[in-house]
Amino acid sequence: MREVNHTNGPSALDAPFQHDLLRRIKMVMERSDEINKDRVTLCLREEEGVRRAETNIRRSTSSLADLSEIYGREDDKNRIVNALLSADGESDNHAIPVVSIVAMGGMGKTTLAKLVYNDKRVEQHFQVRSWVWVSEVYDEIRLTRAIIESVTDQICNLRNPDELQDELSRVLSGKRFLLVLDDIWNEDPIHWETLQASLISGAKGSRVMITTRYENAASIMGAQPFLRLGGLGRSDCWALFCRHAFYGYQAAASPSLIAIGWKIVEKCKGVPLMVKTLGGLLSSETSEENWDEILTSDVWDLDEGERAS
């Protein structure tokens, strides 16, 4: 068992530690709150001039999931799995039904999609499963090639848009497929209509699942059902925090540290990314004074102008 040591007095390294940790926490908050309205939801402060280019922050995703890292999403997972396997949503115009997961950044959309994608019921139901990361910049050629390569497990060297659409239609023809489009930003219906035209060759029962921050992006794709993902519950947030802050050994931590940890978790407002990252940052420091410094720091506060908005 890992022993958690506690210091009751400040050390010579405390001040630099506090400064560095506060700086890193601010970076975490900025990264998990790239949209202004999301910052208000989280009740965090946006420092003037620190907004980063989102394309530098975001990175590609894969369908692999570490199940030990996932808390409190079983009901959401089952709801989506049932929607994917249900015959509801089939239409006479052969359009592929779309299921969407909508939430602000850091809420765990991609993580939930991975849970669904790797569920045994889903694996057994669909003949073909494809996971593709889309991102903010919508590139029709890159996206189509990525889907083809995911389905065929082979490199696609086509460059012509029409040839790519024909090839995608061919590789999906007659197959019941699940296509996951992770991190959709595009709100232009023309782009979706072009892609959809190549998907209708799939067999009845095929589905598209998307993750996005934007309800409008889900709406233009005709997404039904529409799951708006909420924050984690209090107990799930605490379990996630303990896994990273105490390496799962909560019993080895002092009552005072646990009490402070609970208060820090409360300030995370149910956002899994915040809980996980803060737990990881605090795991290397077990001074109660330093934890309390983080808890009482003004990094959590809204500016007065934001508070009134």
Structure description:
Helices cover 48% and strands 11% of the residues. It has 309 residues and is of the alpha/beta class. It folds into 2 domains: 14-57 and 232-308, no CATH class; 73-228, P-loop containing nucleotide triphosphate hydrolases (Rossmann fold), CATH 3.40.50. The longest helix is centred in the N-terminal third of the chain and has 19 residues, at 14-32. The protein is elongated and about 65 Å long.
Task: Write a brief structural summary.
The chain has 309 residues and is an alpha/beta fold. The protein has 15 helices and five strands.
Oligomeric category? single chain
Task: State the CATH class of the largest domain.
Answer: Alpha Beta
Provide the CATH superfamily of the largest domain: P-loop containing nucleotide triphosphate hydrolases
End-to-end C-alpha gap: 48 Å
Q: Taking Cα atoms only, what radius of gyration do you get, to the nearest Å?
A: 22 Å
What structural class do you assign from the helix and strand content? alpha/beta
| Uncertain stretches | 1-13, 33-59, 302-309
Keywords: Plant defense
GO molecular function: ADP binding
Pfam families: NB-ARC
Protein name: Disease resistance protein RGA2-like isoform X2
Question: Topology, please?
Answer:
Layout: H1 14-32, H2 36-42, H3 54-57, H4 74-85, E1 98-102, H5 109-117, H6 120-125, E2 128-135, H7 140-152, H8 161-172, E3 177-184, H9 189-199, E4 207-212, H10 215-220, E5 223-228, H11 234-245, H12 255-267, H13 272-282, H14 288-296, H15 304-308
Parallel strand pairs: 1-4, 1-5, 2-3, 3-4
Helix pairs in contact: 1-13, 4-5, 7-8, 8-9, 11-12, 11-13, 12-14
